Known about the structure:
It is found in: Cytoplasm. This protein is α+β, with helices and mostly antiparallel strands. About 30% of the residues lie in helices and about 25% in strands.
Amino acid sequence: MKTTIAQVGKYVDKEVTIGAWIANKRSSGKIAFLQLRDGTGFIQGVVVKAEVDEEIFKTAKTITQESSLYVTGVVRADDRSPFGYELTVTNLAIIHASTDYPITPKEHGTEFLMDHRHLWLRSKKQHAVMKIRNQIIKSTYDFFFEQGFTKLDSPILTGSSPEGTSELFQTKYFDEDAYLSQSGQLYAEAGAMALGRVFTFGPTFRAEKSKTRRHLIEFWMIEPEMSFVEHEESLEIQEQYVSYLAQAVLKECQLELTVLGRDQSKLEAIQAPFPRITYDKALELLLEKGFDDIKWGDDFGAPHETALAEHYEKPVFITHYPKSLKPFYMQPAPDRDDVVLCADLIAPEGYGEVIGGSERIHDYDLLKQEIAAHNLPLEAYQWYLDLRKYGSVPHSGFGLGLERTVAWLSGIEHVRESIGFPRLLNRLHP
């Protein structure tokens, strides 16, 4: 019976064949232990000299790291294994013998591993992170489909910017200027006016020369937009979504979290509702904590966000930021013209902002005024203004950065490990 490592639990005490690679091995005089991987998981294969042909045992002792093979054996339940099963090997058939595999079971520097990212992905920890990423993607679709949202695909090449052009990659679109998208939001708003509630899920690009552990040049964003939804209701949807992701990872990725050594109590605490504080209150807390280098109107940096998150055992919403810090499309607060109806969701443990969102301006004249105030070309945003011209309604939206969320829920140090092939300030390869 041919199967995969993930499915061996269906075949306890039966003989199966698995296509696999050798992740590692060790042996004594009479037993060889093969650490096998097949993409679906990892399992140990035990080759007992007295129970197999001499040639098979010789193969087991000499086979090299990352060689590919077909392994036949009997599935055994094993409580000592984190996976719960092991394979008593009866036969080995080498497909391709690997030689001089560069990533050996020893410490390698980060730059070396990043240079060999195409191979580093095969390691057990990187495999675990990618599986958690996959679960977050699946759970994202599950959540929004269950909530009645429609998936909308926004363009990657755009003729205008939602947040100004200073951090955009510019290119030529035949005989006119174009940009790599930094957000699908404006197009999602158009979708929301047609379909009610939509979400986009795609790559975004920021030409930001940052080297922090939180930033990538190319990353994936989940961006819902919701008609007839105002600020407070949007916050409720955001916290329900993040809670849904965390609990799904806890339920479906136990083995991966164990491999990564993740403190699962931190994930158990991620359940709605989340605390909410205004920017003004956050500033007071920071001043009380000795951050005397910040004043009203300044944006919060990583140290500030980390200090604020330490107050809470859950993610915290910081709401009502100064208007001067935020993009042109955010709805002003009804009682103050210097702050807007927005929120950043700050993750604990130093992971920083994972969601940014707001209620959007729905008044035509006010939006036109803000476009002019931000020195944006009116003709480029005329289609966006049309959304306020023909049946405008209150609406809200937000964006969640996938890689930062993967890093947070996985408990890994740097976002570069949360995507298959990260694009960093000085890294375009592999």
